[in-house]
Amino acid sequence: MNKLFPQMLERPENEPVILGLVYWIGAFFLIPALLTFFFLGGRQPEYEVWIVIVYHVINFVVALLAYRTHLMDTFINVQIYTKEILSTAAICAVVIVVLRITLGEILWHTGNEFFFNISFATLPTTEADFLFFPTGILDMQPIWGILCFCLMTPLTVSCLLYGCVFAPICVKKPWVAYVVTIALTFVQKFMIFFCLHSFEEQMAQFWLQLPVHLVACWSYQKTDTIWTPIAVHMIANTVFCLHFLIIIL
Question: In this predicted structure, what is the pLDDT of residue 73?
């Protein structure tokens, strides 16, 4: 069991954790709520999509600036244990892709149209989905969509969720870290509920994306570096983005 769930030693310092948690409230509640209120007068998708892209870019920049020191310090683990980290990231990404595709097939063949549509629309994992699901952005702005979901959101999710919550707890109480991550993910989805998506859609996203977060967290614990979940999401999101673009071409 210790080999499968090893003792985690690496965690961000208190400063980026506090900064991340403070920004977490703004990024996942205040900003989406304000933008949603701004667009209540009428939906204009051609403009809104850029608002969402800018939102993802801002979250990425904030996460990068807050965690830049930790990212540089822990990159030494990547240099030392390159093979182990890359193999773990690849395996976890494959697990995520297989899980999501298998679930999609099951939902499709059982006629569960609602869950299937949500599952397909949210294949790339992001820090938050409001106004548009990821596939909507990929459809309207494929280049920016790929940049967001393959390069930016993997770091944002890993820093603002795993780095702020999972890692600080996991170094002391691993199982509690998973429970708290589940709870915080639920709270985040509930907060976005006020931003145009229905409660049913948000809860569907929660259950569909929860295994993805748990697998990514495990990769963090297994390799003791935040770069592993970043790589996991980069690989999985790239596969999903390319799969979607091939379908619509």
Answer: 93
